[in-house]
Amino acid sequence: MSDPQSHRGERALRFLLVDDDAVDRLAVRRALQQSSLPIEITEAADLEAARAALTEGSFDCLIVDYLIPGSDGQQVIELASSLGSTAPAIVLTGHGDEMLASELMKRGAADYLPKNQVANGQLVRSVVQALRAHELRRREREAREVLQKHAERLHAMVECSERIHAAGGVEQMVAAIAVEALRLFEARAVTVEVEARGDLPAITRVATAVEAGAPVPETPDDIVQALRDSSGQRVGRMVLQGGVFLDALAGSALLGKFARMAVVALENGALLRAATAASQSRDEVLAVVSHDLRSPLGTVSMGAAMLRRSITAPGGRYADDLEVINRISRSCKRMERLIEDLLDASRLDSGAVLVTPRATPAAELVQEALDAATLEAAAGKVTVTAHEVAPLRVMADRDRVLQVFSNLVGNALKFTPAGGAISLGVERVGDLARFTVADTGAGIPPEHLPKLFDRFWKGERSGRHSAGLGLYIARGIVLAHGGQIAAESEPGRGTVFSFTLPLSP
Length: 505
Ligand SMILES: Nc1ncnc2c1ncn2[C@@H]1O[C@H](COP(=O)(O)OP(=O)(O)OP(=O)(O)O)[C@@H](O)[C@H]1O
Ligand SMILES: [Mg+2]
Known about the structure:
The chain is an alpha/beta fold. The chain has 11 helices and 18 strands. It has helices at 22-34, 47-56, 73-82, 98-106, 118-166, 170-184, 248-312, 318-350, 362-377, 398-415, 470-480; strands at 13-18, 39-44, 61-65, 67-68, 71-72, 89-93, 111-114, 189-194, 205-210, 223-228, 234-241, 358-361, 383-389, 393-396, 421-429, 432-439, 485-490, 494-502. It has a 5-stranded parallel β-sheet with strand order 2-1-3-6-7, sandwiched between helices. A hairpin with a 3-residue loop joins strand 17 (485-490) and strand 18. Helix 2 (47-56) packs parallel to helix 3 (73-82). The longest helix has 65 residues, at 248-312. It starts with 12 loop residues before the first strand and ends with a strand. It binds adenosine-5'-triphosphate and magnesium ion. Residues 341, 407, 411-412, 415, 439, 441-442, 444, 452, 457-459, 462, 466-472, 495 line the site of adenosine-5'-triphosphate (ATP).
């Protein structure tokens, strides 16, 4: 119920009038009717009639004669309160009952009024005052309840935050945000969308949590809350549906805080994963270095020991010595290559500029790659040829592009058995030159294709001297030129690697 002053046009104020004297009741009725308040009066002549009325309906105000047969005003007030009524009660007293009346006020009456003042407008003033005080008390109670709820939710939010942080991966975190929002805001369904962003992993995910049954269709009443990062940039949104959003004020402030907390949790998760990945990649590098450098180093030190023995022995056998020296130099090359690759990979990771492209004839690059490949292929009985070589000029860092070729051709040689063929070529595709290295080797199963260019990824058959860095580096070099690299393969028939470079202007 609102302020009695602004009550016009709304529903009538309901009075319960308890008085055994019909003439007095009439006087009260008249006094009330003289006011501008819209009123409805129920009359009761005794306690029992009052009980019946209070049981049946609810009232905004009680007007109670202190003296009713077999009872008193105090009992009526107690009865009303025991039946759940919070309406203010005004007690009408006889002349000279003032001591008693003030005692009544202490026990819950809103006001008292000698009966002889009913007619002179005092009753209406008293009613208005009592209703106003009642309304103020109600609002205060309501505000306190809102505050209480707000505090409870703030407390709940701290716990939500802990659970969201503990969820782990982005996907699980987004799902946890939906579940926690569902609970906290008493919604029927919550949808959380996170857009791809630089510092957050590139994801677009939708997580819906529905209490029971089918998803709730979107309606204009849904609450849409933007998710923003600390700089105010939008990172997604959250839609709450069918909720009991009782206190819009406290609710919306909390929703904003919840959204901030959710984004902070997602950002923390991203940072944590990046830190974990960085330390994991350091561990991987250490593992590769210690494992893959140890074995060629073993060869070198063993060979050196053999040479020392052979040189110091009388009449040493030179042919054997030559073989030991060759082994040593092969091992050294392998170690050099691995160290170079590890350094290249780490330069790529840190984003250090890797290439200085200059206008270069594409045919020269293909020819140099071909010469190097022919040299390597000689022992393996694999033919290496150039098919199409278009007369193009490309923007290329010569040494780096030859390194790409060397990695691709090296793989082709490794995975192509004797009798196979490798062919190189370059053609024009739009504004780009497209280089290809094709082989007739083992091919690559389709499920491996997405992982091919990952750092340290290698197939089961790649051999113990492989680090799984060749394609990762090749990709980094091509990307640094502004090109693309790709693989197409048919298991059993062969593989075609291709990469593009921009044409020189
Ligand atoms: N031409 C190819 N034919 C078949 N499989 C290939 C071919 N090229 C690459 N692969 C597969 O891709 C994996 C990754 O190649 P990558 O060059 O990155 O590593 P690697 O050759 O194993 O080691 P590294 O190049 O560091 O010595 C290989 O282990 C192999 O399984
Ligand atoms: Mg390789």
